[in-house]
Amino acid sequence: MERDVSAKIRLYVEHPLGEAQTLPLSREQAHYLFGVMRQGAGDHLLVFDGKCGEWLAQLEQAGKRGGTLRVLEQTRPLRMPPDLWLMFAPIKKARTDFIVEKAAELGAARIIPVQTAFTNAGRIQRDRLQAHAVEAAEQCGGTFVPEVTDLQKLPALLDGWNADRRIMFCDEAAPSGAPVLPDAPGPWAVLIGPEGGFSDAERQRLRGLSHAHPVSLGPRILRADTAAVAALTLWQQALGDWT
Amino acid sequence: MERDVSAKIRLYVEHPLGEAQTLPLSREQAHYLFGVMRQGAGDHLLVFDGKCGEWLAQLEQAGKRGGTLRVLEQTRPLRMPPDLWLMFAPIKKARTDFIVEKAAELGAARIIPVQTAFTNAGRIQRDRLQAHAVEAAEQCGGTFVPEVTDLQKLPALLDGWNADRRIMFCDEAAPSGAPVLPDAPGPWAVLIGPEGGFSDAERQRLRGLSHAHPVSLGPRILRADTAAVAALTLWQQALGDWT
After folding, report:
1. If you average pLDDT over residues A25-37, what whole number do you get?
2. I want to staple B121 with a disulfide (CB 3.0 to 4.6 A). Which of A67, A122, B90, B175 is the partner?
3. What is the C-alpha to C-alpha distance for residues B108 and B86, in angstroms, rounded to an integer?
4. C-alpha distances in angstroms, B140 versus A77, A172, B135, B143?
5. Ribosomal RNA small subunit methyltransferase E PUA-like domain spans which residues (chains A, B) (predicted)?
6. Mean of the per-residue pLDDT values for chain B?
């Protein structure tokens, strides 16, 4: 059988994948594949479930409200990102979406929206943010989708923190040229504050934690979304899977 | 006289600034200051011109279609970014705007939209992109505004290139874990390709340039806007003013 290995469409599915399975398509997936992307029965695509790698699949039945696909063979194994979390204070909608997208692209394993003293958002739309993480993984060839958690309050998060996980604490008030990351492998989390920065009390608490490492992101003030991308980049370069 | 040093509004003005000057406000500036921000005569703000640093100023006349401000005293000298250019292939509108905003925040000195073999955009709105760079500088406390040039074709740009300026060539096809930046101070330019990457001919030409250094941005495929932020971050950390 001839394989269309040039399949460009990548779809995240919630079912655990394995050879010779037939999977149902949701209404949204059917709309995307057959309505938007003009695919039909017989066409190939790539699917991944976030756990079992990436698989070549073929569309079997195509309908307006659903359909089925058949899983053919694994094209790539699961590639886990490093054990890096991103904690960030949600900001305006578009920029929050952007942070989640970029965190998924840059290989964060978990994304935790955090409510700080100066965070405006009192709630988030977790499902929408999770959908952005899925879309980023689909677009960018990832086989893993980071979980987006519910909004958590910073004090409670720090109360329950396992000190084995170091915190890269991106602090506007850190002296420029501050020591960069210690060469410490293992679990980490990046912490980005809101546009107004951290409160004095938050900064004091974080500076008192031996597992938190204040880091400066240069002499210019960065927006929170820029800071998130810059911090994840620096971590990946120093301690992650970029080298 | 009491100074309102908590002035939060920062405005870019095109006039060269100096002590005790009176400057006219444009219609747009008047609308922003008096309509949107509810300022009035007597209120203070910060102004910068991209050349003479940041100055405290006071609004003198407030009108619907204009007004004047008086420049009081310099609050910060001009801080030039390093001699780093960003060359990028324009993509969808929102993401192109984003790249320009981020480049200004991250301290690029010049922003060059580049037409490559796989670039969709045949033209750009230079004035709109320049306005984004100005807004980013206003927001982020910068005293310098990078120039956004007209769209340039990559082959012509490379033909006229001064080899003293090294190129950080962000290549999806570079081997992961490729050597990072050489420790070479002096002028640099970051080059980011379009979503489809570079053509074989472009890649071959760039690889043949002794002043171009291919760099890998990790094992995941990054969108062009993510790649731009990540590359500028790595450069600033290695060779720029972040350390």
Report:
1. 92
2. B90
3. 6
4. 42, 12, 8, 9
5. 25-71
6. 91
